[in-house]
Write a structure and sequence with these properties.
2 copies of one chain form a homodimer. By secondary structure, chain A is an alpha/beta fold. Chain A folds into 3 domains: about 140 residues, NAD(P)-binding Rossmann-like Domain (Rossmann fold, 3-Layer(aba) Sandwich), CATH 3.40.50; about 160 residues, Dihydrodipicolinate Reductase, domain 2, CATH 3.30.360.10; about 90 residues, Alpha-Beta Plaits. Chain A is about 35% helix and about 25% strand. In chain A, helix 5 links the parallel strand 5 and strand 6. The radius of gyration of chain A is 24 Å and the shape is elongated. Chains A and B meet through helix 2, helix 6, strand 12, helix 12 and helix 13 of A and helix 2, helix 6, strand 12, helix 12 and helix 13 of B. Strand 12 of chain A pairs antiparallel with strand 12 of chain B, so a sheet runs across the interface.
Chain lengths: ~425, ~425
C-alpha cells in the first residue's frame, strides 16, 4: 500500500455497495485522520454500468470489464459485496492471487469455498476480512476471534435471521398468523419476494457454520447443520408458550459436547428471563458462553444497508491499518487452519420438549398418552390442559418434558400419531435452556 | 519478543491475578497453538509473598522486590492487575520506559493518568491494552475501537456497575428496600465492605470516561461526568415506574450534541421495551448508537474473577500476536491522540422527568402544581393519582413530563418544595428515551 493513500476496488454496487460508497464519502476526513492516509475508491466492477444506484459514483470509476478492474495497479483492497458464487468466487480468487486483501460480505461463498480461499490468501500473504458475512453490523466475528480469545467457547445461541425474527415477533406480539406475518414482512422490506432461504433456516445455517468454525476452531460446513424452518409454526403454540413463560425464536445453536459438536437451526421456546427471548423484530443477537467469561451477548441489526456497510467499512479500516493482516498472519484461528470436527448424531441430542396433543376427550386418555411417552424413557415435566367448551371431541393437551433424546421424542410423536386416542400428529417444539453463566 | 516464547510479568496476585494465572495454566497448549509460541509466566510482583493465593504460583516466581521484577530481561509483557495509583502508576511507567507492553485492568489509573501513560507508551514504541478496565469480560473497548470503526458514535448508554444493578434488581424484582438490598449484595460478594465508590456512581463515571473517550475520540476525565448515586432511591418510585412501564437503572450516559458532549451517571427510568431495561442482577451492558450501525448492545459479566481474567488474557494474546501493537501504532484512536472536548452545562440537558409529589388532599391542588410546572416551561406528559385511603392528608401525585431543561426541573422541584400544597421535596427521576436506531 502506498504511503499517501489506500486504493479500494469495489465489486458490486447494489444496496450494500452503495452504503459502502456513502460511508467512504461522508466519513472521508475522519477515516483519513484515523489512518494517517486516505481511502480512495479506484474502481467499481458491476454487471451493468447503466443500472441506477443509491450512491453517486463517478462514471469513470464504473466498469463492467473485469480486465479493467483487475488491471488497475492502484487497488490495494478488493471489497466484494456482489454476493453469490459465480462469477464472484473467481473474482475473489483473482484478487487474492494478485496480492490484494479481500473484504467480503459473502456468506454463501465462505460457506462453500471458505477453506480454499483462506489458504489462497495465506499463500499470497494477504488476508480475508468477513465481518459482514454474519450478523450484519454486530461485530461478533471480531469478538470471537479477539475479544474472547482467552476462552474455550462452549456454546453459542444466535438469532441470525432478521426475516424470521420479524415474522415470529409479529405472530407473538400481534397475534398474526404465519402467512399474514410473512406478507407483512415482504411489504416492509424485511423479506425477499422469494423468502425460501430465510424461512427454511438455510441462511441462518450458513451464518452458524461461520460462527461455529471461529468459536470452536474446527472445520464446519453448512451441511453439518441440521435445519428446520419456521413455516409450520402455529399461532396457538405461541400462545401456549407465553402461558408457560416462553418466547418462540428461530435459534442457531452450536454446542461443544464430549462426543462432538451439535449444530442446528430450528424454532424453539426460550424462557422469557433470557436476554435472547427479548430480541424483537428484525434485530439479531448472539449469546456466547465462554468457559472464563461466562455468558456474553452481542445485539444489533443483522442486515440492512448501513449496518452491513458499517461492518464492511470497519473491515476496510482494520485491513488498511495493517493490524488485521498481522492478526491473519500471526494467529492460527482462521478457517484454513481449523481441525476437522466430529458431529453428534442429531437423534442423540438431548433437549426439553413441548408437545401439543389433540387428545380424545374420554376417560383414560392421559394414562395412555403418559404410557406411550414413559415407555420411551421420556420424563414429563409439566402438563397443561384447559377446560374445553369445544364440541370436537378432542382437547389440546400440552406436555413439557425433562431432557429427552431427540430420537426418542420423534418415536413418541410417531406413536402418539398412531394412537386411537390422539388426532393427527402432535405439535412438537424444543425448549432450549441456555447454560447458567 | 523471542521466537519460542513470550514472557509475562504479573503485578498483583489477588482475585484477578489468580484468575489470569489459572487461565495461562489451563489453556497453555491452546494458546501456544494459536500463537505459535508459548506464553511463559516469568515473575509475579506482590506486596507480600507469603499471602495465601487462589492460584498455585511457583515460589521462585514470586517477588516483593520491584528491582528483581524489572531486572528480568525475559519479561516482554507486563500485566498490571494490582489496582490503585501508587505505587502501581510508577510500575507501569517503568515498564513502558523499559520497552515492555502493558496490559492493565486499572480504570482508576487510566482515568487519572491515561493520556500521559499512552504518550509514554508511544514514545517507547510499545502499547497499552486495557479491555478489562471497563465492562469486565465484555469486549466493548475492542468493539468501539475496531468493530464499529466505520461509525461516528452518537451516543452510548451503559449499565457499568454490577453492584448497583444487583441492588436495583433486588429492589425491583423482590421488593427489597435499599438498605436490605445493599446488605444482601455485601453478603453475596456483589458489594465491597465499603460500597461508596459503587453506590455513588463514581466507579461507573470512571468507566464512562474511558468509553466516551474512545467512542467520541475526545479527551474526557472522570471529573467531566456529572454523577448521582442510587442511595436515595425509594421503593415506591420503583413501583410507580413499573406501573408506567419503566425499569429503574443506574445508567452511564454519553451523548454527542451540537453544543458539546453530555456525560452523566444517574439512576433513571428506562422503558421496558429497551433491551437495557432487561439487564438484571450483576450483569453489565452497553448500548451503542453509531450513525451507520444504528443500535448495538454488548452484554455480559462486568466484574468477577474469571470474566475479568478473560479480558486481561485476551489482551495478552492480542498483544503477543503483534496485531494490537500494530493497531496502537497505525490508528490515531488512542487517548493521547484525542482532541479536547466541550461539555454541555448539565443544567442545559433536556430529558423527560418523573416527579412524585406529596400533594395536600384538598381542592385546587392540581391547578397549583400544574401552574408551578407550566410557568417554568415544562410540559406535562402524564399524570397518575390513585384514590387514597390514607389519613395523612397528603396523596402521592405522579407527573411525567415531556423533554424539559434540567435546570428548569430543578427550579420546579424547588418551587414545589416551598409550596404550601406540597409536603417535602418531590422525588425526581429522569426518564431516558434511547434513540431509535
Amino acid at each position: 500500500m502506498s504511503e499517501a493513500s489506500i486504493g479500494i476496488g469495489l465489486i458490486g454496487c447494489g444496496t450494500v455497495g452503495s452504503g459502502v460508497i456513502t460511508l467512504l464519502g461522508e466519513m472521508r476526513e475522519a477515516y483519513a485522520q484515523r489512518l494517517g492516509r486516505s481511502l480512495e475508491l479506484r474502481r467499481v466492477l458491476v454487471r451493468n454500468t447503466t443500472t441506477p444506484r443509491d450512491a453517486v459514483v463517478p462514471a469513470n470509476l464504473m466498469t463492467d470489464d473485469p480486465e479493467t478492474f483487475f488491471g488497475d495497479p492502484d487497488i490495494d483492497i478488493v471489497v466484494e459485496v456482489a454476493g453469490g458464487l459465480d462469477p464472484v468466487g473467481g473474482f475473489v480468487e483473482r484478487a487474492l492471487a494478485a496480492g490484494k486483501h479481500v473484504v467480503t460480505a459473502n456468506k454463501s461463498l465462505l460457506a462453500a469455498r471458505g477453506v480454499e480461499l483462506f489458504a489462497l490468501a495465506r499463500k499470497h500473504d494477504v488476508c480475508i476480512a468477513f465481518e459482514a458475512s454474519c450478523g450484519g453490523g454486530i461485530p461478533i466475528l471480531q469478538a470471537l476471534k479477539f475479544g474472547l480469545a482467552a476462552n474455550r467457547v462452549d456454546a453459542l445461541y444466535g438469532i441470525l435471521n432478521g426475516t424470521c425474527n420479524y415474522i415470529l415477533s409479529q405472530m407473538s406480539d400481534h397475534g398474526a398468523e404465519y402467512d399474514a406475518a410473512l406478507t407483512d414482512a415482504k411489504a416492509k422490506g424485511f423479506a425477499e419476494a422469494d423468502p425460501t432461504l430465510d424461512v427454511t433456516g438455510a441462511d441462518a445455517a450458513q451464518k452458524l457454520a461461520i460462527l461455529a468454525s471461529l468459536a470452536f476452531g474446527v472445520a464446519v460446513n453448512a451441511d453439518d447443520v441440521s435445519c428446520q424452518g419456521i413455516d409450520e409454526i402455529e399461532i396457538e403454540d405461541i400462545h401456549y408458550g407465553v402461558e408457560l413463560g416462553y418466547a418462540i425464536k428461530l435459534l442457531a445453536i452450536a454446542e461443544r459436547q464430549d462426543e462432538g459438536y451439535v449444530l442446528r437451526v430450528h424454532p424453539c421456546f426460550v424462557h422469557m428471563d433470557e436476554p435472547l427471548s427479548q430480541v424483537r423484530d428484525a434485530f439479531n443477537a448472539v449469546s456466547v458462553f465462554g468457559h472464563a467469561v461466562g455468558h456474553s451477548m452481542f445485539y444489533g441489526h443483522g442486515a440492512g444497508q448501513m449496518p452491513t456497510a458499517s461492518a464492511v467499512v470497519s473491515d476496510i479500516l482494520n485491513v488498511a491499518a495493517g493490524w488485521y493482516p498481522q492478526a491473519f498472519k500471526s494467529m492460527a484461528i482462521w478457517p484454513d487452519q481449523h481441525e476437522p470436527s466430529q458431529m453428534v448424531d442429531p437423534d442423540d441430542v438431548n433437549n426439553r420438549y413441548y408437545l401439543r396433543i389433540a387428545a380424545r376427550d374420554v376417560p383414560g386418555v392421559m394414562a395412555k398418552v403418559a404410557k406411550i411417552i414413559g415407555d420411551l424413557g421420556i420424563s414429563i415435566s409439566a402438563i397443561l390442559q384447559h377446560e374445553s367448551d369445544e364440541d370436537s371431541g378432542f382437547v389440546p393437551l400440552i406436555i413439557t418434558t425433562h431432557d429427552a433424546r431427540e430420537g426418542s421424542v420423534r418415536q413418541a410423536a410417531e406413536a402418539l400419531a398412531q394412537s386411537d386416542v390422539v388426532a393427527g400428529r402432535p405439535a412438537c417444539l424444543r425448549i432450549i435452556e441456555l447454560p447458567t453463566g
